[in-house]
Amino acid sequence: MTLFLFDAAARVTHGHDFTCDDDFYDRLSRRYSVILLVIFTILVSTKQYVGEPIACFCPAHFTGTHVEYANNICWISNTYFVPFERILPKYPQADTEHYIYFYQYVPFILMGQALLFYFPSLVWSSLNSKSGYDIGMLVTQSRHIDTYTSDIREKSIRHLAKYIDRVLEYQKQKHLEYIETFKGLKLKKFFNLITFMILNNHLSMSNHLLISFLFSKVLYLCNAFGQLYLLNFFLLNDYDMYGFRVLKNLFVGDNENWAITPRFPRVTWCNFAVRNMADNIHEYTVQCSLPINLFNEKIFLIIWFWLYFTTLCTLFGFLYWICSLFYPKLYENHLLRYLRSMKRIHLHHAHMYSNGHSVIGHSNNHFSKTLTSNIDLERIWNMKVSTNLKTKIISNDDQRSSTTALTHTDEILFTDFTMKYLGRDGILVLYIINKNSNEVITGELVSVLWDLYRARNR
C-alpha cells in the first residue's frame, strides 16, 4: 500500500505538472492538497502496520502470546471510551460510553479525501477535451516558447493562434447548426424559450468551455466547503469551529489538552472473551492506550486548518473568475492593453477640459469616440451635453489636457473581435495561457489573432 501511495504522489507531483490547464486555486486542491493527504496517509499507514498502534494493560498472569492476542483483538474490534471520572460499567451501554469505530480506517479516510480533491480536475479534463480545445497542449507550447529562437518563436506563436482561430470558427459553425436544429423542433414553449436563451446569447457562439470551467470551479468549491463541514462535525460537533476552539485553548493557557477531541481518545477500554479447552468462557476487560490517536488528532488538526485556508482561496478564485469573465470592462481592458503594446490599434487624441468632462460621448463599449475639429466639437456640444453642463469652454492650452482613444473603425472592429470572434471561450483560453505562461506571450497571441480577424473582415 505504501508503494502505491508513493507512486500516486509521484504522478500528482510530476505527471500533471506539464499539462497545467487550470490556475493556482485549482492546483491548491488537486495537487497540493492531494500531496499533503497522501503524505499523511503514508505516515499513518506506517505507524499502523509497522509500529504498535495499540498497547493494552493486561492481567499479570497473561503471557507474551496472551498480551499479543489482547492487543490484536482490541485493535480489530471496537474499543470504547469512558472518562476516568465516571464509573466503568460491567456491561457497557450506548448511553454510558463512546464506541470508537474509525481509527483503523484513518488511512482510507485520508485517501478518500485525496480522491475527492482530485475528482474535479478529472471532470474538467474530460469536459474541456470535448470543447475542441487542447488546453494542455496550448499551455505546454506557450510555456516553452521563451526557450526558442526568434524565428521558431514567431512560427510557434502563429501556430497556436491559428489553432485557436480554427477552433473558434468551428464553434461558430456548430452554434449555427444547433440554432437551425432547435428552430425546427416543435418543443414546449417554455423549453423552447430556455433553449433559445442559452444558444442565442449575445456572444453568438458556444460557451462549452466556459460552462465546463465554471462547473469544475463549483465542484472545487463544493468539495472544499463540504469537507470542511464534515470534518468539523466529525472532530467536535459540540462547537461551531474546531480549529478556533483549539486556538482558544492555547490562548487561555490549556497547553496540556489544547487539541484533545473525544473522537481520538488516548485511553480506551476493550472487552473480549477467551474460550479454553473445557469450553469455559472467560471474559476480560482491559485498559488500552492508543498512541496513534495522539498522532491522528494532530494530523486532523492540520487538515482542518488546511481545509479552511483552501476553502477561502477557492471561494476567492471562483469570485475572481466570475468577475474576469462576466465583467466586460475587465477583459476589454486586458485585450486593449495587449493590442496597444503590440501596436495593432491606432490611437489619437481626445480633448479633456478643465471641468473634468470630455466633450466626447461614450459608446456602449466603454470607449470614447474621438472627433477633434471645431465643427465636430460644436455638433457634439449641441447634441450630447446637457444644459446643466453647458458652461463656458476655455480654449487655453494650459486648461486642456488630452488622452488617447480608439479610432471609430478600430472601435467597431475591437467590439466584434471581443464579443463575436473570441467570445468568452476564447477569452478564457487566453486567461488560462496567461496564468501559466506570461503576459508577453499572451500579448503576442492576441496580436496575431487580431491580425487574422482583421484580414478576414476587410
UniProtKB/TrEMBL annotation:
Its main location: membrane. One of its GO terms (cellular component) is gap junction. It is a multi-pass membrane protein. Signal peptide: none annotated. InterPro entries: Innexin. Keywords: Cell membrane, Ion channel, Ion transport, Membrane, Transmembrane, Transmembrane helix, Transport. Belongs to the pannexin family. This is Innexin. It comes from Didymodactylos carnosus. The gene is inx.
